[in-house]
Amino acid sequence: MESLTLFKNFKERRLFFLIAFFVFIFNLYVEFTKYKQFTKNEVYHTSGTIQNYYQKENHSTVKIKTDNFTFFTPYKQPNNSILYKEIDLYIVSKNITFISYLKGFYTKSFNLNLDISKTSNIENIHNLIVNQHTNNDIASLYSALYLASPLTSTLRELSSKLGISHLIAISGFHLGVISFVLYFLIHILYKRIHSVYFPYRNKRFDIMIFITIILLSYMVFIDTPPSLLRAFFMFVFGFFLVRNNIKLISFDTLLIVLLVVIALFPKLLFSLSLWFSVVGVFYIFLFIKYFNNLNKIIQFVIFNFWIYLTINPITHYFFATTALEQLYSPILTILFSIFYPITVILHFLNNGSVFDQFFITILNTTIYSIEINTPRWFFIIYIIISLLSITKKEIFILLNLLMIFYNIWLFHFIF
To answer: Could you tell me which residues come within 8 angstroms of residue 218 by beta carbon, excluding any fewer than 6 positions away?
Structure first.
């Protein structure tokens, strides 16, 4: 049976775009109303949760998320114990623009009152993970993998040199692995119940509902990372499309999900992690479109390498760190699919330190790196060619030539 299209004609497509636009404008107006209230006086009293801290030689900064906005402010002598703690303070709201308010801003603060008496559920789980490791960097790694917690400066630098930041930051890749494991486990548990009590129901549909509820709960629990939010919307939307026999793997699907996310959450328009997530899915769809007829084994072998090399010009426009070891990234991505669920189980069994010695060895390894950014002119051309590749195979071939040229140029500085 041939798959249907989501929009029957241009009129329906136009109606969707209009609805998305007006929802975006409405939510942007709501944010602007909050902003005007925020800037009404020069000083604003607020409370929030400490999400990150940045310790430097001369000063330290904490990232605080409130119900309405996220901001950065100086903080004296921060340490691990302040993560996820509630804090009450006064901040200077003068001269903060609306764009800064949406993106997250830096401001001075005073009368900071840290509440160390309360511990949240996420803090308790964070502590359970951390207590299974003696090395602070390794504890930070696992907490980031499961709870989207901040990495130590050492790990941020190492993940950048190895080109594995996408593996550590919770995104659609993690959601895919989690969904697969959940489906396997729920199927085992539900199979007998279904055959005895609900044989008339669609078993796969029920399992997918269970998975959706679990994923939504998990996403809310870890404070809804933008990349995971995009992935969850796509998961739910994809589920809807499959149930209604509508074509799932299409650039329309990606665009619709992106527009819905931004319309509902205008602040995410400035989220780099969301855009990287969208870019990753875009190139996956390009791969499927043009390599779908290849042998499945060949597809499996070249998939992660092609995706990594194709995204490189974009990631290096924003992040300049370049190292030869980044070429291991596709292999590490494949291995991560096995490593991730195993370590989750090990931490549940209070044996999370099994791989610690391996990671200590990596942490003690010196990796030579240099700073190279993608030239802006090439970045713009590359984005345009990538988008046009949707329409014609000849342009897709040109995209691959640009990708090969760029990566040879990038890594020749290291050889």
So the answer is: 178
pLDDT tens for 268-298 read 899 888 898 899 889 999 999 999 888 888 8
Which residues, in sequence order, are CB contacts of 258 under 8 Å at separation 6+? 230, 278
What's the pTM? 0.87
- SS3 (DSSP) at 164: coil
Q: Which tokens sit at 19?
A: 């609805």
Q: How many CA atoms lie within 13 A of 305 on its CB side?
A: 9
Residue appearing with tokens 């809804």 = 224
Q: How far apart are CA 340 and CA 223, in angstroms?
A: 20
Residue ranges of the chain that CATH labels 2.40.50.140: 40-118
- Place domain 40-118 in its CATH homologous superfamily: Nucleic acid-binding proteins (2.40.50.140)
Question: Rounded to whole angstroms, how far apart are CA atoms 182 and 115?
Answer: 36
* CA angle, 324 then 320 then 151, to 5°: 85
CA angle 264, 266, 269 (to 5 degrees): 125
CA pair distance 70, 106, nearest whole angstrom: 9
SS3 180: helix
Sheet architecture: strand order including 105-106: 105-106, 70-74, 60-65, 43-55, 86-92, 109-115
